[in-house]
Design goal:
Shape: globular
Number of helices: 10
CATH topology of the largest domain: FAD/NAD(P)-binding domain
CATH architecture of the largest domain: 3-Layer(bba) Sandwich
Helix content: 25-40%
Structural class: alpha/beta
Distance between the termini: 40 Å
Number of strands: 20
Order of helices and strands: EHEEHEHHEHEHEEHEEEHEEEEEHEEEEH
Length: about 425
């Protein structure tokens, strides 16, 4: 079998891995992108709400309200569901997530992620222009609907808290909601419209467009198994279909599968998994959805994707590789049909994916503490699409000795001991 050589190998061809590969390539590195699939963006990067969430200052932390906690514990909250059989597997991580969600620690996480959030749309705009796919970015923003006065008041408070950090938002009454989305029906206390976030109508397609750009600029892609990674003689080796790739540096950007590499190397980083589901449906009749719309109280989102209206669910706490249980789709679909005219399903069955999350909701970016040439870029929680190019830039700056655009210390693996 052939021995291939590269300056570095990026393991994982989702949005995070492709973003890192492009930024390293821009800085003169000979990069090979290795994934278990022939095409980029086939896993977590394919299934999401499609938003570049540059207005999401505060991460998705564990709720502290007793009523909410009780509904979560009783498995009655539409925003989250758990598999009872998997509780022993995820409960230790969930406890760390709860502790990291205290008001003080949650604010610290938000401020750590803020420089990445602010950079997110800028980096995507540059890559989309270079890739020549302007049709994959829509500047529509998104709408968050509320059916009760209590949840609306809470959302307005969250907006007011975010405004000092540059977040723009408009509070909509029922009439303003109807003007923006005339095909929505229901009783709403109000909504919040966020104009700044970009919308991607084909997230998996965008990852593929970025991978194509990488290849046009001389980058190489290969199908391989990250679990074959080993270090010998100061070099890293990983098996691919054409043989073995040998490189000085390795970037682990495998999202929810990153532990398959870092655990055998002796790292016990607390990577947790939040699973999620989506289903595409045809719009009914001539109905048009103009923005992604979150039905906040009912825990689902509708997004106007190229493939159809994508219904996405809340969070499922379960083992990463446990069989799918699309209960949240089944519960959300009747409610979604009363909100917007939906026709037949386009997909044969709901898609399932896994979000890679650290308990503090901050990604791990930077050099591995105990192995020369090993670098981490994973744990982007709900923001892999949003942050992939931004964290790729930060990692590339660190790896090439360039001054980083923000202090990388908050993202270091060493924060977990």
């Amino acid at each position: 079998m052939a021995e291939l050589k590269a300056d570095l190998v990026v393991l994982g061809a989702g949005m995070v891995g492709v973003g890192a590969a492009l930024h390293l390539q821009q800085r003169g590195r000979d990069v090979m992108l290795v994934d278990r699939h022939e095409l980029a963006g086939e896993e977590t990067s394919y299934g999401n709400a499609g938003m570049i969430e540059c207005a999401s200052v505060f991460p998705y932390m564990f709720p502290r309200d007793f009523g909410q906690l009780l509904r979560y514990a009783l498995n009655q909250a539409p925003q989250a569901h758990y598999r009872l059989s998997d509780v022993p597997a995820f409960l230790p991580w969930l406890a760390r997530y709860f502790l990291a969600s205290s008001p003080e620690r949650a604010l610290r996480s938000a401020m750590a992620e803020l420089p990445l959030i602010r950079r997110s749309l800028i980096e995507h705009e540059a890559l989309i222009a270079e890739a020549g796919v302007p049709e994959l970015l829509r500047r529509t923003g998104w709408i968050k609907l509320f059916r009760s006065e209590a949840t609306l008041v809470g959302a307005v408070g969250d907006l007011d808290r975010a405004r000092p950090y540059g977040v723009e938002g408009e509070v909509l009454d029922a009439r303003a909601i109807a003007e923006r989305e005339p095909n929505l029906t229901g009783e709403f206390a109000g909504a919040v419209y966020f104009p700044a976030p970009g919308f991607i109508p084909d997230p998996g397609g965008l990852a593929k467009a970025y991978a194509s750009l990488f290849q046009r600029k001389g980058g190489r892609c290969a199908v391989g198994d990250a679990r074959t990674l080993e270090q010998s003689g100061g070099k890293w080796r990983v098996g691919v279909t054409a043989g073995t790739v040998v490189a000085r540096d390795i970037v682990v950007a495998l999202g929810p599968w990153s532990d398959l590499v870092f655990r055998p190397l002796g790292y016990s980083l607390p990577l947790g998994i939040k699973r999620g589901y989506h289903l595409h449906l045809a719009p009914g009749g001539n109905a048009v959805l103009h923005h992604p719309v979150l039905d906040s109280d009912n825990g689902y989102l509708l997004a106007p994707m190229n493939r159809g209206i994508r219904l996405t669910t809340g969070v499922e706490f379960a083992r990463r590789d446990a069989p799918p249980t699309p209960l949240q789709v089944d519960r959300a679909l009747p409610r979604a049909r009363t909100l917007f005219p939906l026709g037949d399903a386009v997909d044969a069955k709901p898609w399932m994916g896994a979000r890679p999350c650290m308990p503090d909701m901050i990604p791990v970016i930077g050099k591995a503490p105990r192995h020369a040439g090993l670098w981490f870029d994973f744990g982007h929680q709900h923001h892999g699409l949003t942050l992939g190019p931004a964290t790729g830039r930060l990692l590339a700056e660190m790896m090439t000795g360039e001054a980083p655009f923000t202090d990388p210390k908050p993202y270091a693996a060493e924060r977990f001991g």
